[in-house]
Amino acid sequence: xxxxxxxxxxxxxxxxxxxxxxxxxxxxxxxxxxxxxxxxxxxxxxxxxxxxxxxxxxxxxxxxxxxxxxxxxxxxxxxxxxxxxxxxxxxxxxxxxxxxxxxxxxxxxxxxxxxxxxxxxxxxxxxxxxxxxxxxxxxxxxxxxxxxxxxxxxxxxxxxxxxxxxxxxxxxxxxxxxxxxxxxxxxxxxxxxxxxxxxxxxxxxxxxxxxxxxxxxxxxxxxxxxxxxxxxxxxxxxxxxxxxxxxxxxxxxxxxxxxxxxxxxxxxxxxxxxxxxxxxxxxxxxxxxxxxxxxxxxxxxxxxxxxxxxxx
Length: 312
Prior knowledge:
Layout: E1 9-12, H1 17-27, E2 34-38, E3 44-48, E4 56-60, H2 67-82, E5 87-92, H3 111-122, E6 126-130, E7 145-148, H4 151-161, E8 166-170, H5 176-186, E9 189-199, E10 202-209, E11 216-224, H6 228-239, E12 244-252, H7 258-263, E13 270-273, E14 284-287, H8 290-301
Parallel strand pairs: 1-4, 4-5, 5-6, 6-7, 8-9, 8-11, 11-12, 12-13, 13-14
Antiparallel strand pairs: 2-3, 9-10
Helix pairs in contact: 1-8, 2-3
Domain Ribose-phosphate pyrophosphokinase N-terminal: 9-123
Organism: Microcosmobacter mediterraneus
InterPro entries: PRib_PP_synth_CS (IPR000842), Pribosyltran_N (IPR029099), PRTase-like (IPR029057), PRTase_dom (IPR000836), Rib-P_diPkinase (IPR005946)
């Protein structure tokens, strides 16, 4: 007789292939076989090349806003539902479209809520993600959401640096809660940058709340997009007498001239995870989130507690 709880199967969307291979290796199962056929107009169709009937499957796919990434994840979930998978867990190391989590002006969408509804409509029975742009996005789902913190990856690295006079900084008011959590874990001071935007991705003015004179500063944020805020904050802190400035950002979106800005900035290093693939750079240090996701996926499948992974 077959085992009552056969091992889970792990599949990946094309954008997360490198990370998924690491996760599958740590988990201890081979990556499942999916082939994608593409029509000449760009329409594509993923196909599971093995039986998934009655199984728990994990589909790994970050939805960084290249629209194909979200569409591929939705199609893979739908295909799994129609192939009679028992549990379909969408593993989204980076949950894209999350900056649109509320109406900040009239006549705009709430994209994060729309994405949540699409994932559930496609057939996802659980979501595993990391460092959401806004915690309340968990409430947009009717299905269970495991919201992991990358601090479990970053804190050991920071502690190993053994920096004197360490100060944690938030690059904006919105990230102050995250900065305070890190400072509590590291027993350090906190400073906050106050910024005003002319429009999305364009900062008109930045001011510093707190003292960085003679301090080694670590900026903490959930994502780095154009790197405008980070590099401006780093330059301001060096001006104000900081000894060094590093940045920790979970998701390296790094669009536009971000790489160029980083290379020319006063930042010592930018520490990121591999939730999104990034290009090699002398300023970027990548820490893998594969172990974190593999252990959580294993515990979810075997109905074991994952609460230790939520400790900030």
